[in-house]
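Late entry, calcium ion complex.
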Amino acid sequence: MSFNAQLADLFERMAKLLEVTGANAFRVNAYQRGARRLRELSEELEPIADDPKQLTATEGIGKGLAEKIAEFHRTGRVEELEALRAAVPDGVAAMMDIPGVGPKTVATLWKQGGITSIDQLKQTIADGSLEDLPRLGKKTLEKIGKSIAYAESAGQRARLGDALPLAVRIVEELAALNCTKRVDYAGSLRRGCETIGDIDILAACEDPQALAKHFTGMSLVDEVLLSGKTKTSIRTDTGMQVDLRIVREDRYGAALMYFTGSKEHNVVMRQRAIDRDLRLNEYGLWKAEDAERMDEAKPVAADTEKVIYRKLGLSHIGPELREDRGEVAAAADDELPEPLTIDHIQCELHAHTTTSDGSLSIEELAAEAKRRGFHTVAVTDHSAGQVQANGLDAQRLKRHAARIRQINGKLDDITVLAGTEVDILADGSLDYEDDLLAELDVVVASPHSALSQNSAKATERLVRAIENPYVHIIGHPTGRLIGRREGLSPDMGAVIAAAAEHGAALELNANPWRLDLRDLHLRAAVEAGCMIAINTDAHGPADFDLLGYGLLTARRGWVEPKHVVNCLSTKALAKWLQSKRQGDQ
Ligand code: DGT
Ligand code: CA
Ligand code: CA
Ligand code: ZN
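Prediction complete; structure with ligand written out below:
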């Protein structure tokens, strides 16, 4: 972790602990702001950490924070944080990590309810003995109970966005060794699953021992779990298990196919081989009689996946499709979806600027989108209901839109659209009047609050928003946060049918916390004729990189370029956006 990121975590922790202990809001805010600032900063603070003048010259860093930064740099710790940690019982600090439970609630539970652990909290929620605390009614407590249960059931699986960069780093490090012939990550990660149990790495190497030794010696290794002849397992300092398997180069494709899985896909593939009097295993595709003597025999195919698929009469099945969801039959008929790649994506239709909670100005956002090769970027800042995100009221939005159009007028090689991400309120009405929405080029409508309402209400809510003639895109339709918050669970069939009927696109939000819509819902949507919008919901320049997670998820959902509004040319996009506007003339 970078120096800045470590400090940001540290300040966030301090802000929370201060709030739990009832410190004044001003100090809490200072740490929160400092943490946010540190995350946005493009330059590393480490080189100037001991120079208070330079530190305080950085926007958002005052004298108090500068002292803490210097202290952390000098000693590797911050005394005040240690004191706070000592003052707050571990169990109370753990309660702060329950999704949706803020420091104020934790303070009430602790100081007034005498609760000092999550187990005790669960117990008291269950037996109803907690119901007379201020601001903690029965409903709130029920919600907390559910939240604890959801977090526990999500268990130890990592989000794709955490596992993938780690795996890429490991693969690069192993690939750099001279003896390495081939190395890839396999398993659920290669299939692009939204959560990952463990990382599976596969390698072919002239000197397996040297490779395994290097693997267990990497700086991110916390513990070596297993050190065998063909398999080595480690646990990283972030708690992730990584398995390395070293195989023969001439059988690499068979091993890669096997360890990519899924298990269910492998079962179907093995059966297909048997039906053709062949045998498929992690060492290759064999004639039935040779499978008993693999040491002497030559496989029908083994070195690449492609040849194995071909010898089984199949076109190449991309890893994201290997879930036994009809992909083998489709490959046999040459009817697999056209693979969607980053080159197909030509615009971003959901992005924020400093006017709400983004870190880029309109000009900077346009420049970044251009750098990414896009022909269009939509500025869609939050609506007034998003107070904490500095959402815009009608007047501010009008001024903002005028400014966006003015800037757009000055730029030749990128189109900047004036839009909004308007809140879908609990009853499905929108946070702006229709007249105002009608003036905008693009309208993304998203649910942000009331995300635990029941399924019937959620369906009604989303369908009502879809029916609004000015809405182009439903942003992150369920509002889920993977591993943290379940989000809405509407009748997806009804939502999809409404979107298809009214020509509203459903978003695949590419942020790895969201991946919303998820793969199976995407597939149902494109089968019903819906358009999909793949957006990064960029709040800063690096967020454009999140697109890759969206593409993986889209491919898992059998989404093809022709289904995606972000793949439209400038002209076709303009036409699609307009089509909604013409409906009411
Ligand atoms: P995960 O780690 O829970 O996110 O999911 P995977 O799919 O990465 O599963 P993992 O790590 O247990 O195994 C990696 C791949 O190895 C799996 O996708 C398919 C293959 N594999 C592992 N065990 C078996 C097995 O018993 N039978 C078959 N056919 N394949 C297996
Ligand atoms: Ca795995
Ligand atoms: Ca594994
Ligand atoms: Zn957004």
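The longest strand covers residues 415-423. Will revisit in the morning.
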